[in-house]
Structure formats: C-alpha cells, structure tokens
Design brief:
This protein has 232 residues and is of the alpha+beta class. 22% of the residues lie in helices and 48% in strands. It has four helices and 16 strands. The chain is elongated. 38% of the residues are buried.
C-alpha cells in the first residue's frame, strides 16, 4: 500500500507527463477497497495539478488498450506486482509507465528511466494486422466438422475439431491445443494457423475479431516500455 509521499511523487510524475499536451493519464488501480481508495487519493492529487485521469481495474486495462479513443499520455500502475496489465497497456499504446513499488519511502523517482519488457503476440492475416496482448483463441465456429492445420518449425500438424489458445511467454509462443487427441502443447517463436476444413472464429484477448478465412501468422514480439519506479 503506497503512502502519501509515494502518491505525491507519482502525481508529480503524472503531471510531468501531462505537460506534454492535452490528454489523460491512466491509473491502473490495486485490488479491493484499499486499491480503490488509493487510486481515489492519487486521482485527487493529479486533478489538483490539472491532470485529467482515467482509472481502471487491472482486468480492464487490456480491453482499454484495444478500444482507447481518447488521448492517453502515460500510465501509472498501482496494481500488485503479479499483474502485468498496466505494462501491456503502456506497451500497446507506446506510452511511458510509472510503477509504484514496495520499497523505501525515501527513494526518489529514478533519474534515468529503466525499461520493462512485455511479451506480446504479433498477428498478421489478410486484412488484419495487430497484436494480442494477453492471448489469442481459435475455435470451430459451427457444428460441422472442422480441421485446422498448424505450421510450426517446418512441420505441419493437422488438428481436427481443435481449439487453440496462444500466449506469449519469455519471447516464445506457448500454444495449447485441445482436440480429439486430448491436450497438446507446442512452443515456438512463430507459427501459422490455416483452416483446412470448416469455419473457425478468432478471439483476441477475449474479443471476437472475425473468422479465420485464410492463413493467420503469429510470432512472439517483445516491446520495451520506458518505466519510472516510485518506491512506496
């Protein structure tokens, strides 16, 4: 739980970001009542400095990255260290990140930003270019028989009736396939999914983005995020 001094330093850093132009600073809250109260205090401190604030829970940050239509100038992360959602939001929108972490209250904001690395999934299909921040799912979209092919590391694997989930982890794609043969796991830096028989839907970070009409190329992608640490 950040103390008032740490929140004050976070507000100063957020105000410095706001000085770059008109827009909002996103505050990713902690959990529970304490997290909401802490975010509320930070919001008040930012607003006193003339900063517009958009605050979200960690679970909302990835969705915000995909639908964001107002100008964001940076992200302040108050969430627990096991959540990477604020980093993913900053990475996707190429924004500076301010992280409030446990440590000495006497430690000031780092003079020189460090870099966090976020693992993402770059996707490329006819008419579609983008990335999945958390995961990507491909599944049969109807009751008719369906077969998917997975091209990976110079091999082609046929996956009848399979559901596929892809995540990025430590610069690799972790690919889980659930089908008639049970659960299979693959790992590679890139892969290609292609419908052989039937129709398949594609969901990116839980949101439907359409049907898999042709090939879908995926690769692990790492983006570095300029980050300042504030010790609480």
């Amino acid at each position: 739980m950040a103390d008032s001094r740490a929140l004050g330093r976070a507000a100063e850093a957020g105000a410095a970001l706001s000085g770059a132009g008109a827009g909002h600073v996103a505050v990713v809250r902690g959990l529970g009542r304490d997290g909401i109260a802490q975010a509320s205090r930070l919001r008040s401190l930012l607003q006193r400095r003339g900063v517009q604030v958009l605050d979200v829970f960690p679970q909302e940050a990835v969705a915000l990255a995909h639908r964001q239509d107002s100008e964001l100038l940076g992200v302040i992360d108050l969430s627990p260290p096991e959540f990477s959602d604020a980093c993913l939001l900053a990475a996707h929108l190429d924004l500076p990140l301010i992280v409030v972490v446990s440590g000495s209250a006497d430690t000031e904001i780092s003079e020189r930003p460090i870099e966090y690395s976020c693992d993402l999934i770059a996707l490329d299909a006819p008419g579609v270019n983008g990335c999945a921040l958390s995961h990507l799912d491909v599944a049969p979209s109807g009751p008719a028989p369906a077969t998917l092919t997975l091209e990976i590391d110079d091999q082609v694997v046929h996956l009848p009736g399979a559901k596929v989930r892809v995540r990025a982890h430590h610069r690799f794609l972790e690919i889980d396939v659930v089908g008639s043969a049970g659960v299979r796991h693959f790992r590679s830096r890139s892969c290609r999914l292609r419908p052989a028989v039937g129709r398949f839907s594609v969901r990116c970070d839980g949101t439907a983005i359409g049907e898999l009409g042709d090939t879908l190329d995926l690769r692990a992608w790492t983006r570095r995020v300029a980050t300042r640490l504030i010790c609480a």
